[in-house]
Every structure is written in structure tokens, then in C-alpha cells.
Design a protein that fits this description.
Strand order of the largest sheet of chain A: 3-2-1-4-5
Distance between the termini of chain A: 28 Å
Strand content of chain A: 25-35%
CATH topology of chain A: SH3 type barrels
Oligomer: heterodimer
Largest sheet of chain A: 5 strands, antiparallel
Largest sheet of chain B: 5 strands, parallel
Number of helices of chain A: 2
Structural class of chain B: alpha/beta
Number of strands of chain A: 5
Number of helices of chain B: 15
CATH class of the largest domain in chain B: Alpha Beta
CATH superfamily of the largest domain in chain B: HypD, alpha/beta domain 2
Order of helices and strands of chain B: HEHEHHEHEHEHEHEHHEHEHEEEEHHH
């Protein structure tokens, strides 16, 4: 789906690539902040829209709540949670 | 108006519906194309057709990356899965898309190493954990997804990960819109512009549609109210004889797009001279290829990809449905040979595909009289 997933930055993991732990729908996963504007990087507590493991833009808390509700209404919340749980798994 | 109470902000929805009826000329038939598959899904899910007067027709566009990929490219990608050293990775959406000799899932069932990833970064991570194997990532998507693939390729190059490559099938939205406008059997009055693609490309690239083609465009969000407000914007422009790009979704979409994402795309990709789209044929400069600097990570150059061209099953009319010439239910196979459980065309696979959306929310409801179950969980494009 085209619909991006909102999450909140709960931990910054500085370095290259710039990573952060983001909480989405009760799940904590690592996402890449490399596509955010360098002038306005992701900060602790920021809400971001996440797409295939990358934060694409910063959004307001109000919009994040609205987007979560929309995912629910579209029947996509479960697929979104599955996607987020799938990010950055231990691989073998 | 039906169903209004079920929506958020029902008073605003009702008010917007009234405004649509006031603006629409009852003697005119309007055809608005929603370009994005996410909008198609939302329109069916929320039954927005029932909120619009009958002379406003929403035509479903080509904005479903899985749906526009010709079968030959799927076969090309799967040819690499047959190599014993290769781990084939793709988003969940791709897994049930049929190739000539089966879908990626069926290849997996036959013993080939086919795995779902949710991010291109995870495909790279998989490569680093498996230095004696080769991880190939089957990349699809419009400008929403291309920056993530680009950044992953940059990281692969920086870290010199040699056992990783990308089979690039990224496409660009503007040439597809142009091809649809050039199609002689297509008559459209205006466009509902894609939401999340526009967070990356911004609104400026649509200005030529207004300027050169004389078609209004409103970039829209995905809430029922967003889509209805976009319809109001388009009707108002048509009524006032104005033609411009409007940004209904400005709470997320900046006019100039995402600079960092556009920079990543530009560094890693360049335009292909042409690319084949299912249903639309060859469109010039409509897709991305990996730049020479990244040739070592380009699966097409690393492996002898056969470059297969396959015509779609004759009876299937995916092309006409993709262009918006036919409605899903008008295809001869719809709901008979072709269902979400046994898809023949990709439009029936992805939850963004208009056939799957129509089948789930309209067809089954009409046939059985009960709301249908959801489409199987999909990845995100």
C-alpha cells in the first residue's frame, strides 16, 4: 500500500547511517533517518512517517493519530504492524 | 447520503458532499482519475462512489507498482532465484504475483530460496549475514520507494558489500500520466494526484499537466474527507475555467518535495530510455536504472537476465482496466477464473490493485450480501 506508517522516535542511534528506534503500534524497531532533511533531522520524541524501513518525513502528532486511525479504518493496521515487526529482524 | 455517520467529521463530509452537488453541472459527465492505488483502495473501502452524484465518475489509474510490472520482468527476476547461490528477496506484495512458471511463493515451494523483506535495508543486512550467498533484492515502486532503494545501494557501496544486488523496477509517475493522456481511447477531465509519491517529488512536476494538457490536478490525502475535498477543488477549477495544481494534502506534502530523497534518487539512478508497463506498453523515460558507478550492485548487469517479453493471458483485460477504459467487473475473467485467491493478473493480487479492491469491497458484498473479508495482508509500496 501507498499508506505510510506513523511512528515516534524513542531513541537516537547516532552515526552513519543515522538510525533511530521508533515506536509504532506498540512495536519498537530500528529505522533509518537518512532521508530526512539534514537541516531538520529527526529528534527524540518526533513523529515520522515510515515507509519500507525509512523515515520519509516528520509529521505532527495530530496527523500521526489521524493516520493511525485511517490505517485501522482501511483494514491495514494489521498489515502495518506485520511490516514493522518485520523490520531489522535478526537474520540467519 | 448514505454511510455518512460512519465517517470521522460527519458534518464536514455532509457539507462537502453538498458543495460537490452544488458545483457539479448536472448536464455534464465528469471523469476524474485517481492516479494512486492507495486512493483506489480507500475509495472502495469507504464506498465513496455512494457519496458522489452519478455524473462524477472516478477512474482508477496506474499507481499500483505491482500491477504495472509486465510478466516478463517477473520472469527475469525469478530467473535469478533459480541460481543456487542466490537468495531472492522482495516485498510481501510481490510474492503472489504470477510469472509464467509461477509466483515467487511457488518458486519457494519448489525449494528455491525466496524470502520476504520489509525494507531494502534488511535485504542488505541479510547479505552481510550470508557472505557465501548472493542476496538479490527485487525492487519495485514509484518515487515513494525509490529513495530507500537508493540509500541502501549507497550503503552497500560505502561498505563494499559484494554479495548484494538490486533488480531495479522503479517507475516514475509523471510519464505514466502523460501516456494515459496520449491514449486515444481515454477522456479525462482532471486528476486526483497521489499523496505519498508527492511527499517525495512535491507538486511542481504536475504543473505541466495543467499547463500543457489543460487538466486540473489536486494532490490528495487518503481520508474520505480528503478525497471529497480534492473533488471540490477540481470541480471548482472546471467551473471557473481555471487550470492549476492544488495541494489538498499540504499537511504532509511540501510543494518542493523531499530534497534528501530526491538527491538520493539522482545520485544512484538515471532514467531508462524506455520501459514496458503492463497495459500501457513502452513509455519513454518512465523508469529508473542503476547508474554505472553502482554497476557492481545492479542485478541486471551482474547476471545474464534473459530480458523476457511475455504477453498477458489473452482473455485477461488487465491493460484496459489499468488504463481505466474498463471497470474491473467488465473483464471477462473477473470473479470467475481470476479472484484474489487465484489471481491471473496482478491487479487482483495487490490490495492497491483496482480488481482486488473491487472484488473485496463490492463484488463479494453484492454476491453474498455480507461484507467481504479483507484482502490478504500486503507489504507496503
Amino acid at each position: 500500500m501507498c499508506l505510510a506508517i506513523p511512528g515516534r522516535i524513542v531513541e537516537l542511534l547516532p552515526g552513519d547511517p543515522p538510525l533511530a528506534t521508533v515506536e509504532v503500534l506498540g512495536v519498537r524497531r530500528r529505522v533509518d533517518l537518512g532521508l530526512l532533511d539534514e537541516q531538520d533531522p529527526g529528534r527524540l520524541g518526533d513523529w515520522v512517517l515510515i515507509h519500507v524501513g525509512f523515515a520519509m518525513s516528520k509529521i505532527s502528532e495530530e496527523y500521526a493519530t489521524e493516520q493511525l486511525r485511517l490505517l485501522e479504518a482501511l483494514g491495514e493496521a494489521e498489515a502495518a504492524a506485520t511490516e514493522v515487526r518485520g523490520y531489522d529482524q535478526e537474520v540467519t | 447520503m448514505r454511510f455518512v455517520d460512519e465517517f470521522r467529521r460527519p458534518e464536514l463530509i455532509a457539507k462537502t458532499g453538498d458543495e460537490i452537488r452544488r458545483l457539479a453541472d448536472p448536464d455534464r459527465h465528469y471523469r476524474f482519475m485517481e492516479v494512486c492505488g492507495g486512493h483506489t483502495h480507500a475509495i472502495y473501502r469507504f464506498g465513496l462512489k455512494d457519496l458522489l452524484p452519478p455524473n462524477i465518475e472516478l477512474v482508477h489509474g496506474p499507481g499500483c507498482p505491482v500491477c504495472v510490472l509486465p510478466m516478463g520482468r517477473i520472469d527475469d527476476g525469478l530467473s535469478m532465484a533459480e541460481r543456487p547461490e542466490v537468495i531472492f528477496t522482495a516485498f510481501g506484495d510481490m510474492m503472489r504475483v504470477p510469472g509464467t512458471r509461477g509466483s515467487p511463493l511457488e518458486y519457494k515451494a519448489r525449494g528455491m530460496d525466496v524470502r520476504i523483506v520489509y525494507s531494502p535495508a534488511d535485504a542488505l543486512k541479510l547479505a552481510m549475514a550470508n557472505p557465501d550467498r548472493h542476496v538479490m533484492f527485487f525492487a519495485i515502486g514509484f518515487e515513494t520507494t525509490a529513495p530507500s532503494t537508493a540509500l541502501t545501494l549507497k550503503r552497500a557501496r560505502e561498505m563494499d558489500v559484494k554479495n548484494f544486488s538490486v533488480f531495479c523496477n522503479h517507475v516514475t509517475i509523471i510519464p505514466a500520466i502523460r501516456a494515459i493522456l496520449d491514449s486515444p481511447d481515454m477522456r479525462l477531465d482532471a486528476f486526483i494526484g497521489p499523496g505519498h509519491v508527492s511527499t517525495v517529488i512535491g507538486c511542481r512536476p504536475y504543473e505541466w499537466i495543467a499547463r500543457n494538457e489543460g487538466k486540473p490536478i489536486a494532490v490528495s490525502g487518503f481520508e474520505p474527507l480528503d478525497i471529497l475535498q480534492a473533488v471540490v477543488m477540481l470541480l471548482r477549477q472546471l467551473k471557473d475555467g481555471e487550470v492549476k495544481v492544488e495541494n489538498q494534502y499540504n499537511r504532509v506534502v511540501p510543494w518542493e518535495g523531499n530534497r534528501a530523497a530526491l538527491k538520493a534518487i539522482g545520485e544512484v539512478f538515471q532514467l531508462r530510455p524506455y520501459f514496458e508497463w503492463r497495459g500501457l506498453g513502452f513509455i519513454s523515460q518512465s523508469a529508473l536504472r542503476i547508474r554505472d558507478e553502482y554497476a557492481a550492485w545492479d542485478a541486471e548487469r551482474r547476471f545474464a537476465v534473459p530480458g523476457v517479453r511475455v504477453t498477458d493471458p489473452k482473455a485477461a483485460q488487465c491493460g484496459e482496466v489499468l488504463k481505466g477504459v474498463l471497470k474491473p467487473a467488465q473483464c471477462k475473467l473477473f470473479g470467475k477464473e481470476c479472484t484474489p485467491e487465484h489471481p491471473i493478473g496482478a491487479l487482483m493480487v495487490s490490495s492497491e490493485g483496482s480488481c482486488a479492491a473491487y472484488y473485496t469491497f463490492e463484488h463479494r458484498k453484492a454476491a453474498v450480501g455480507v461484507p467481504a473479508a479483507g484482502i490478504p495482508a500486503a507489504g507496503i509500496q
